[in-house]
Amino acid sequence: MGVWANIISNGGGFHSLLAGVNLRVVTLPVNFFIPIWREFILALGLIDSHEASIRAALQKQCSVGIVVGGAAEALDAVPNKDYVLTLKKRRGFIRIAMAHGVPIVPVFSFGENDLFNQASHPILRKIQNLGKKYLGFSTPLFIGRGVFNYSFGLLPHRKRIVTVIGKPIPVEKTASPTKKQMDEIHQQYTKELKKLFYDYRSLSDGER
């Protein structure tokens, strides 16, 4: 939601703060099979998450926004609990960045976990993980607020989302990076992301 609220919609003044950045945000391919919705997200500059689409955007000198945790991370977005990131085994975005020699910019959004309540149970989680494995997207069972009530509905709760953007991490162009090279960039990215969190968590509605 932070990507939609503060970057894609320009709700956080992204286009003014980073004028000249031609951003393409990545989303699931299934979104492009839905009539009308497909045209809407294309107009907003979204692209599908296939590697070929990301590489094509980079070749056109576009910046690419990737929610690294993706579907798996969505299942761990629970209000009033610690942030759980799906990051440890993710290397694809680093490999692509190294292949094109483009910097990686860490971004963190505070408050996203507080937008919806989410049903949680070990058996339900197993079913959700199976669905994610075979469908390619997660199916969190969430409850938000309604138009005229604040206890039940599909709208997000009225919570502030604070999105912070870190310093670009330089990446040397490497056609076929080794695991060691990718691990080094991954460690640097993780370090910078943690720094963003601890430096700016006081701006969120509650520290964790």
Give the tags.
two-stranded antiparallel ribbon; 3-stranded parallel sheet; single chain; globular; 11% strand; alpha/beta; 208 residues
Account of the protein in words:
The structure is a single chain. The mean pLDDT is 88. The strands form three sheets. The protein has a three-stranded parallel beta sheet, covered by helices on one side. A two-stranded antiparallel ribbon has the order 4-7. The protein has a two-stranded antiparallel ribbon with strand order 5-6. The protein is globular, with a radius of gyration of 18 Å. 37% of the residues lie in helices and 11% in strands. With 208 residues, it is an alpha/beta fold.
Q: Could you give the distance between the termini?
A: 19 Å
Residue share in β-strands: 5-15%
Specify the number of helices. Answer: 8
Radius of gyration: 18 Å
What's the number of extended β-strand segments? Answer: 7
The neighbouring-strand order within the major sheet is 2-1-3
* Shape assignment: globular
**Run of helices and strands:** HHEHEHEHHEEHEEH
Outline the low-pLDDT stretches.
none
Helix content: 25-40%
Structural class: alpha/beta
The overall pLDDT, averaged over residues, is 88
Largest sheet entry = 3 strands, parallel
List the helices and strands and how they pair.
Blueprint: H1 2-8, H2 14-17, E1 23-27, H3 37-43, E2 47-48, H4 51-59, E3 63-65, H5 70-74, H6 92-100, E4 107-110, E5 117-118, H7 122-135, E6 142-143, E7 162-165, H8 179-200
Parallel strand pairs: 1-2, 1-3
Antiparallel strand pairs: 4-7, 5-6
